[in-house]
Structure formats: C-alpha cells, structure tokens
Amino acid sequence: MKINRVIGDSLFTSLAPAIWGSTYLVTTELLPPDSPLLASAIRALPAGLILLAIGRRLPSGVWWLRALILGILNIGAFFYFLFVAAYLLPGGVAALVMSCQSIIVLLLGVVLLGEKIRTLQILACLVGGLGVALLVLQPAAHLDTMGILAGLAGALSMAAGIVLMKRWGRPEGVSILNFTGWQLTVGGIVLVPIALVTEDLPSTITGLNWLGFAYLSIIGALLAYVIWFRGVERLPAITVSFLAFVSPLAATILGFIVLGESFRTTQIFGAVAIIAAIVLAQPRREPSPSIKTEQFQYHINEGKKDE
Length: 307
Prior knowledge:
This protein has one domain (3-306). The two termini are 31 Å apart. The protein is 77% helix and 0% strand. With 307 residues, the protein is mostly helical. The chain is globular.
C-alpha cells in the first residue's frame, strides 16, 4: 500500500461523508417535515434496487447472512439510531456522541482484525472528539439518557459495519456496485415497516419534496455509499472511521454558506482539529502482512511445490 495511493483514496472516500453533510440542509429545505425514517427508507431502498438491477446478482451461500448483517449495521440500524438520537438530543450533542465510533473501531479492530492500538491513534481520537465538540456543540445543550444511548448504539452499528467489512471483504466476482446494492436494499427493507408504524405519511408531496428524495437516494445513498464502501475496502478501518468527521464539518460549512448561519471562532478551531485528527489517522508506512495472510501464502507456495 503506497502512501500516495492511500492519500488519494482518503481524499476520494471523504467525498461520501461530505455528501452526507448536506443531508441536514436538504432535509430542512426540501423534504416534508416529521418523516425522517420514511425519508431514510426512500433514500436507501430505491438506490439499492437500482444497483441490484445493474449488477443482476444476488448473494449466495454464507453471503445471504453477511449481506443481511452488513445491511442492518451500515444502513438500517444506523439510520434508525441516528434519527432517534437527533430527535432526543441537540444536533451538536448527537454528533459528539456519534463521534465515539472511531474509538469503537479501534477496540473492535483488536478483537476482529488482530490490529494493535497505537498511541497516535488514541491521540487522533481525542483530537477528533474535541474538534467535533468545538464545531457543533452549543453552550446550552442538554443531555437525554435515551438519546445518548441511541447515539452510542448508532456509533457501535457504524463501527461494527466498518470492521466486519474489513474482516469479510467482498465476495469474488461481485462488483462494488452490486455489493453496495445488497446493503442498501436490506437497510431499506428494514426501515420501511418501522417508518410506516412510527410515522404518519405526509399529506402532500410537492415537486421540491420529490427533488429532495431524489437527491438523497441517488447522490446521498447510491453514489455516496459506493464511494464509502470502496474506501472501506482500500483503507485501514481506523482511517475510514475518521473520515466520517468530514460530515459535521461539511454540514457546518454548508449552513454558513447557504443558510447564513454563524461561524464562531471556536468552530474554526474545531474544523482545524478535525482535519488534524484525520491527518493523524493516516497510515505512516505500508502495513505488514497479517499472520493469516502469511499462512495463506505459505499454503499456496507449498501447493505449487507439490505440483
């Protein structure tokens, strides 16, 4: 893994959370009110079905279960807990709680990937959390126990999805488009009944509403998740988790540019801290092969000798 390629992959992957950062703006300006889970289902399911139609391949064998698990963790459960936290907590507190997913990725990486926790990674977690707090936290923010728990559950869901994708990889012969389609479809199917039971359908849907739905589905889901899952494949899990910090940064900048929201001095420091955390999380050298990889290569070589 060459460092230049890693930087290029990181910059490209950061486009996904940057796009997700526009979700708040699109939701408030274009979507009907009080239907966040319905919007999430519409965002995920059509995009997933489009990608399935392009790939024309369903999971097989153990990948039925894996696709179900990844779809729930990365899309269905993550969206649900995200919106529960957003309803019960101020946006800044919710974003701060969700930022702990990088720490969870570190811990899960030790258990599931056999990785070691480095001092620089711990420092990056602290700097990133501080940056998010400075960027989005308001002085009068209040705490809600259920909101905090929902935020932690969302962070755990996102972190587990990243780490399991690193552990399982992608089935041979399946394109990244098809692989993304599996997960978006599963996530959308999970969200539809929850949305129908817990939310009222909008009385009217305007042309602007349809435009907002189309943006979230095509750009915010189909395009963004293809980019994101590509990055999960190519980059270390911890590096990808820190790129998620780009989302609140993009949301704050868009709010300042488009909605005329204030941009305080503390937010500038927060933005700098987030960028510093992302830089700290970048790998400094080519990773050495894992024990499993070495053993696998040994068996291949031995097999060639026997031939």
